[in-house]
Each structure stands twice: as C-alpha cells, then as structure tokens.
Amino acid sequence: MKNMKYISTRGEAPAMGYQDAVMMGLATDGGLIIPEHIPDVSDRLETWAELSYQDLAFEITRLFADIPDADLRALIDRSYSTFRHPEICPEVQVGGLYVLELFHGPTLAFKDIALQWLGNLFEYILARTGGRLNILAATSGDTGSAAIYGVRGKEGMDIFVMHPRGRVSPTQERQMTSVLDENVYNIAVEGTFDDCQNMMKRIFSDVPFKNRYSLGAVNSVNWARVLAQIVYYFYAAFRVMKAESASSVRFSVPTGNFGDILAGYYASRMGLPIDRLILATNENDILSRFFQTGVYSLSDVVPTLSPSMDIQVASNFERYLYYKVGEDGACIQQMMTDFSKTGSLKIEMDESGRVDPLFTAGAANTEQTLAAIRNYFREYDYLLDPHTAAGIHVAEEVMQRESGSPMICLATAHPAKFSKAIVQATGKDLAHHPLLDKLSDCETRCAVLPAKESAVREFICELALV
Asked: Distance (Å, rounded) from C-alpha 233 to C-alpha 268?
C-alpha cells in the first residue's frame, strides 16, 4: 500500500489520499484531481511484460492507491470477472495494424474497464466509511450504460445519468433506460452533451450542494477511471512488442473527452515506450485542431455517426494542460477562467512547429469513417464501430506518411452498438450481439428535463439519498 497524494490542477485544494480523491471526483477548487507525482517504472517493464491483465492491473494500481494489497487484488478480480474474454482486452492483427478490443465487458464498450472497477471501489469505500453516495454523470453514449451497470443494485449509492435526448444511438439509450433498479435514474436532457457536462461541472463546483447530497463522479474527471485505463496501454504494448520483436509502439485513439488518450499520455510518462499517440476526432475536431495549431477554440457540436466523440469541451484536457504549462496551478486557473469567457486558449508551438512531439492528430469525416468500416469488412472480414473506424482512418493516414513502430488502434465499442452505421457502410445488417438484441422488447424508464441546471438540481433534491 502506497502513500501517493493527490492535488488539484488549479492548486487550491488540499492534498488527499487516493480513496478521498475517488470520492471527491472533481476538486473543490473546480480543478481536476491528479497524482502529486508520476512514478517511473522503466526498470520494471521486463518483469511486467509477462503478467496477466489482472496481475498487471494490481502492480500499476498499487503504485497510486492507498488500499491494502489483499483488498486490492480482490477488487481487481471481482471487477474483471464480468468480462467475456479471458485476456480482458485482447489485441487482434488486422491487415497492417493491431486492433485492441476494449469491448468485452458487460455493456460492450471500453468504459466498462474503468467503471466495473469504479463501482466496486465505491462500494468498498462506502462499506468502510458508512457513507452514502449520489453519483451524477453526463454521457455522450457509452459512459452512462457502463456506469449504470457498474453500480446498479449496489448498497449506499444512487446514480443520476444525463444524456442528450436524441443524440445517442438508440442502442445506447436503451442500454441505459432499460435498467430499472431502484438506485438508477436516467435523465434525457433537451440539449447537447456539452450542456449535460457543463451542468454537471457547475453543480459539482457548488461545494455546499455537493456536500449536502454527497455527490460523486463517474465521468472521466474521476482519476480512478484514468488510472484503470493506463493498464491496457501497458498490456497491449507488451504483447505487440513481443509479437513484432519491436522496442516501441504507436497508439491511435478515437477521442472525445480526452480521458482515454490521457491514460496513454500517463503511461508514456511512466516509462512505457510509446513513439506516438495519434489523436483521432470526427467532425467535432477541437482537439485535433489544437494539436495541429496550438489553438483550443470552441465551435458548434455536429451530430455524427460516432456520438461519443460529439464533444467540444473535453473535460480531461485540463489535466494535460497542467503538465504543458509546467505544473502551474495558478496558470491553469487563469487559463480556464479566460477560456470560460472567450471560448478559446492558445499554447505556443515548439521549434519544430508542434504542440507536443508525442502527439499527432487528425480527423475523419462521415464518408471516411464509412469507408473504413466498408473496407475493413471487405478486405479482412472485420467489423469496426464508427469510433474505431475514425481512429483507424487517421492511423492509416499517419502510416502512409511515415514508417515507424507497430500501430495499435483502440477499438472502443462493439459494432453492434452502432448497427445503423454498419448498414449505411456495408448495405447489410451485420452488427448484432445477443446482449443488445434482447433489449428491443425491454421496459424502459427515463425522465425528460430541459437543459437547465435548476431542473437537474430539483430532480436530485427530490430523489437523492441523504
């Protein structure tokens, strides 16, 4: 058990332990919680390369978590017992690259990897403190169902999940709203995901309200989620480097809220030999524009085939900025205050014209995404969901421009979650999964609210555990 402390990106919240950081979610000063330092594990890579997924998760997590080893092992084993593949996150060679399948959990999305863990972690902490927890979440699609499946029926906690009405796939919506456990509340907001996320952040910033209703976060603002996702970067890199006799790898990551690729950034800083993190967006390209120009500037959200990436304000981006500005909390506080007023911020490029030599960025539009789905099915008999297809399109562009280490593309969801996109790409109804097919006749329950913070607060006040 380690004594890692956690601080805020904005520098005004007191340092805390891991369990307190998990329960707090968002720091009291409005910043994001981060570890006080990043451990260097370069000298352990050779030993770690031979570990199972669960054993690797134990070794990485224990560096950051104040949980006794026996309890930590039990939590990890319980969290990944729900996955349908023995390797948890297998990698598959498809053509000239590797696809890291992150969709073998209960809701067929990469979010399960962190949220099965987080649900058990919340229950573990609450059992020891005797407290209660009201989870407030915003989702662009997959986080909501994964969070719900992670905490449904668990003692001492309720979950309130906001999604933008009509802007998630029908399958994603049904996965959430068909869960009828008494501790689950779904809210369809008449607005965008950014509306949901902004309301969530403002509510969490109201510290008296947050404390009164014991609010907790499962969105990727919660450090526990980022930490859980670091593991599969190590696991995949070890296996691909061994298969290819390579000394390093590249990762392509479909990106919306910056949490998934941020985990890769932390893995690199810990010493994992990553040559390049390739950030892929759809038409909502605020992040790809930033890494190409140094300017992070808002525009309107465009609905696309890949709704989990239909985001403008990426909530985890502040964590990356913290390191980019030299770990200066006061600077981040000022930058984020200015950004909230102007909708724009700027970082100076280096001498080579890059924001960061670790990152390459690109975007895939609808036609390019559909073409990737169509081509990979035709050439390799392999179905991609539209988020993964965007990541593969950008990865292929990079591979055409420059040779390099093996390419690993993160597959963030099972294609059956986006069956309409598969039909549009291939002309055939190919994408099915028994877990999803049986949802079509399920009873559903969901409240519809306007995109007003006051309406969400009233809903919480009426129904939350206190």
From this structure: 9
